[in-house]
Amino acid sequence: MLKRVYARVVHAKSSCDGHKERGITFPSKDCQVELLNEFYEECLIPKDDLSFVEAHGSGTFVGDPIEGTAIDEALAQNRKTPLVVGSVKSNIGHTEPVSGICAIVKVSCIIAMETGYIPPNLHFEHPNESIRGLIEGRIRVVTEKTPFDVDKGLIGVDSFGFGGTNSHVLLQARAKRKTNKGVPSDNLPRLVCLSGRTEEAVNCLFEEISVNSLDAEHIRLLHDVFRKDIKGHLYRGYIIMSKSGEIARSIRFPVGSTIVPPLYIVFGELMNWQEVGGQLLKLPIFVEHVKR
Fold first, then answer.
1. The pTM is what?
2. Which end of the chain is least crowded, N or C, by CB within 10 Å?
């Protein structure tokens, strides 16, 4: 089931530079340039349209000058503005085989494409003199919170491995923009039932719902996630949210209970039952029962 679209994968390509006379960890600038040139020829995307390149950027004396020079030669030569680059490794270190996934999380899933800002690199003070693109201004490292160009929304991601493996992925930001920050047009409160391994985990989800101000897509995602029991989630709870804020919440710790009690809806004294009934008719399951 499709839950959410963070970004579109425009193209992906990898290569290997083969026999390595200088050692298994030594990269090849020529092969990286060749990969990038072939990549953008195949996907028919102008290199100048790139908004940002998330570099492999391992911080080594050998790897960074080679990658930086390859990016400069392949992607930055004819740009009217400097190509903005960065590397999540300056923030979290080198995560070895999952470093490429961390880079994608940085640029698409959580930060750049979600917030509209590229997070800054840490500890960058002086450009490496071996990377002429940095010295001559064709490439610029992000050192401040930088607005992301969402119009074209194109981010290239580098990831390299032992043995001369070169990989590049081009991601494009999703075109959809939320209307009214996802707040629904109706005035119906939303009931969300959650679970977690600890009480703190459930409360954390509750707070996330409150911060998102009744985002209908977020609520639907939580409904899908928690529609079935999750093994090991011993703490259960619910929250009722409206446009004006939180109405109620509860957390409990069921011990060995396997019987699911019925849900009773109690209205109290109805001063305007026609209005309440009209609101309930917006719920498909209520309409089905009325027709039945």
1. 0.67
2. N
